Amino acid sequence: MNEGRTGIWFIGARGSVATTATIGIAGLAEGVVRPVGLVTAAAAFDDVPLVGFDDLVVGGHDVDPTPLLERARRLAAGGMIPAATVEAVARRLEAVDAEIRLVPRSPRGSQRREIELRADDIRSFRDRHGLRRVVVIDVASTEPLPADRPEFHDRELLEHALAQEGVELLPSSTLSALAAVGAGSPYVCFTPSISLGIPALHGVAAEARVPIAGQDGKTGETLLRTVLAPMFSSRGMRVLSWAGANLLGGGDGATLADPAAVESKLASKNRGLHDLLGHDVVTPLHIDNVPDLGDVKTAWDHVHAEGFLDTRITLQTTWTAYDSTLAAPLVIDLARLLSLADEAGLSGPIPELGYFFKDPWGSDEHAFARQADELVSWALQTAVRRASAQVA
Predict the structure, then answer these.
(1) What's the confidence (pLDDT) of residue 316?
(2) C-alpha to C-alpha distances, 49 to 37, 40, 52, 92, nearest whole angstrom
(3) Of 11, 51, 272, 364, whose CB is crowded by the most CB atoms within 10 A?
(4) pLDDT score recorded for residue 270
(5) Where are the domains of the chain?
(6) CB-based contacts of 286: which residues, under 8 Å, 6+ apart?
(7) Tens of pLDDT along 123-168?
(8) For the purposes of burial, counting CB atoms within 10 Å of the CB of 224, is it exposed (0-12), middle (13-18) or buried (19 or more)?
(9) How is domain 6-217+325-391 classified at the architecture level of CATH?
(10) Same CATH fold assignment for domains 6-217+325-391 and 221-321
């Protein structure tokens, strides 16, 4: 195991994904939850020194003051999580809730000041609990993509704008990412929000010597696509079209009903498919808000391909699941793996963690089987590097 405790600082700490992950961490520590769905609990990682579940301490930022235990009970009432599990970890959830801070605002100040306030909260959390490190994970609602600005391409112009009072240039996801980097914390962007995707910021994590991973967690429909698409290519079949439809309710459904917010999500979901099959494949995709579905997400895909002697092949898939329970184990995995990366002295984007994402930073690989092999190989090599660093 890693020595010392690791903090997880969730951006969107009272949202469905973070709440589900926090319940899971508490349940794993208490021994009332099995590690089903956790990649890092598989036998392939037995020789990798990962931080233990009982050594993970959770806090975070949110804009919603609703108590975490109340949020957990709502998820249980909706059928996602057994009510008995929530009650079994209720005291732990209340302890976490005391570590969640409202996102600090500086209405008359600069965005640089707001970044510093967010970073101060992360540092304070680390110091208060004597943590070895804090991994910051953004699981907040998807933001609309900001309009391009000259400052986004010039670090000096960007820094000047950030110092100006009353100027709101960067979206919240980017402010949180810069706060994480400024606090020396490994950072995960689990959303399609722009975060550190602004060109002028591409090198900041490496400069700060912190490891980062992103972007947009691969949990359901896209996961299935990255398994199936290489099959068609490997067998020499030509995919003509791959159409998809997503139905979901809850907070994600409401957020993605906004055409501006859904734009980045649609682009992220289709990008890997085009990389695997080619850009001549027709890929219509839409996401519909169906409030009565709550947190259950249903994805339909229709694949039309061409086989030998011009024969046509059709594949139809249906994927239905609670999206938050698909995402939650992945963010726990990412916290453990980035803690290892930080322990080994790695910095900047970790390409091998692209296994977890639709639009992986630092990697053009989307085929799931290859990503899985690369992840395990990386974890074992990083474990060796960590041991060497400790000896040195």
Answers:
(1) 97
(2) 19, 10, 9, 25
(3) 11
(4) 77
(5) 6-217+325-391, 221-321
(6) 244, 245, 246, 266
(7) 999 999 999 999 999 999 989 889 999 999 999 999 999 999 989 9
(8) middle
(9) 3-Layer(aba) Sandwich (3.40)
(10) no
| pLDDT at 2 (0 to 100) | 44
Query: What does the pLDDT read at residue 261?
Result: 60
* Nearest C-alpha neighbor of 202 from the set 183, 184, 177: 177
Q: Which residue has the tokens 């820094």?
A: 159
- Supply φ then ψ for residue 36, to 5 degrees: -70, 135
Matching residue, tokens 């690989």: 365
Helix (H, G, I), strand (E, B) or coil at 319: strand
How far is Cα 372 from Cα 252, in angstroms, rounded to an integer?
Answer: 28
DSSP bridge pairs for 349: 212
* CB burial readout 31-47, b (16+ within 10 A) else e: eebebeebbbbeebbee
Alpha helices in 89-154 (DSSP H): 90-97, 111-129
Pairing of strands 211-214, 187-189: parallel
Instruction: Break the chain down into helix, strand, coil percent, rounded to 5.
Output: 50, 20, 30
Q: In the beta sheet, which residues pair with residue 313?
A: 305
Cβ contacts of residue 144 below 8 Å, gap of 6+?
258, 260, 261, 263, 264
The whole-angstrom separation of Cα 139 and Cα 197 is 16
Strand ordering across the sheet containing 238-248: 285-289, 238-248, 296-306, 312-322
What pLDDT score was predicted for residue 260? 65
What tokens appear for 356 in the block? 């977890």
Scanning the structure block, which residue is given the tokens 């949180």?
A: 176
Q: How many CB atoms lie within 10 A of CB 261?
A: 19
Token match 């912190």: residue?
A: 210
The single residue listed with the structure tokens 């930022």 is 61
Which token pair is 196?
């550190």
CA distance 229 to 294: 30
Residues 6+ apart with CB under 8 A from 133: 6, 7, 126, 184, 185, 186, 339, 342, 343
CATH assignment, 221-321: 3.30.360.10
The pLDDT value recorded for residue 1 is 45
CA distance 34 to 77: 21
